[in-house]
Amino acid sequence: MKTLKESFKDKFLVGAAVNAETIENDQELLKKHFNSITAENEMKPMHMQPEQGNFTFDVADKMLQFAEDNGMELRGHTLVWHNQMPKWFFEDENGNDVSRDELLRRMKAHIDAVVTRYKGRIHAWDVVNEAVEDRGEQVYRQSKWIDIIGEDFIDYAFKYAHEADPDALLFYNDYNESHPNKREKIYQLVKGLLDRGVPIHGVGLQAHWNLYDPSYENIEAAIKRYSELGLQLHVTEMDVSVFEFGDERTDVKEPTKEMLHLQAERYERFFDLFTKYQEHLTSVTFWGISDAYTWLNDFPVKGRKNWPFVLDEKGEPKPAYHRIVK
């Protein structure tokens, strides 16, 4: 039976999110099925620069070494986010907000240090993550970046990243990317960057989906809409939860036959769509390797396990796997 990367080798990269544990424990599965990896958390600012000027590169270095040793790409994730930012980033020594100029200086210093270290070795970066508001008319999510710098913090982040590595592909990355209202906001944000000549090369669709939502129509409409920007598209954090959003059951100890069947159907349709748009879509990354570990265990419902991938807890193919490699 074909592996994941063999099945899509002329179409797009197939990636997996890894962390400090899984990169050690799941090496064989990674080598077998994937040709791209992304650090789940270890390259976020909180982990990379926990204290001002004190960078901790060891885990990221190790991940990149593993990728290079095995002919894989590594997607850098992420440079600027409202979440998992160390507190010092936005504050002076008295705990007050820093000035706009100072925050831009700190942003540039962080991006310079991280991107320059891996220059020419990391093929794509999620430069700005989740800057769009989910609901209502408001485009930008409330954050310290917006409060202190203003909306143009996004322009600066991309410019700084491009200066640090002119050859890296630079992405804007977000979730709920297929919901029509948010889709249009993301489209307008990225179009604005392009109109202003900001160096951006792609849109990341996180694809945290489930058995029922979003609809195929909305996903295809989103892929189509973003492809009109003329940029590359990456599916960056894919998982297909077996629970509907709002389903808070904790008594399900293993996935039911129906769940596995529905999940297989969903994955098949998703990969049919990805293949249909392969001229725009150049990478598909699962937000994990197998059902042995997923961030969806305990989230958003405490004490609940989830089974969102195409490989089961033993790393064996599930019905969804057979459907997508067929």
From TrEMBL:
Pathway(s) served: Glycan degradation; xylan degradation
What are the UniProt keywords, alphabetically?
Carbohydrate metabolism, Glycosidase, Hydrolase, Polysaccharide degradation, Xylan degradation
Q: Which reaction does it catalyse?
A: Endohydrolysis of (1->4)-beta-D-xylosidic linkages in xylans
Superkingdom, taxonomy of origin: Bacteria
User: Per its UniProt record, what InterPro entries does this chain match?
Assistant: GH, GH10, GH10_dom
One Pfam family cited in the UniProt record for this chain: Glyco_hydro_10
EC numbers on record: 3.2.1.8
- Keyword Chaperone listed: no
Location of the GH10 domain: 1-326
Q: What class of enzyme is it?
A: hydrolase
State the family named in the UniProt similarity comment for this chain.
Belongs to the glycosyl hydrolase 10 (cellulase F) family.
The name under which this protein is listed is: Beta-xylanase
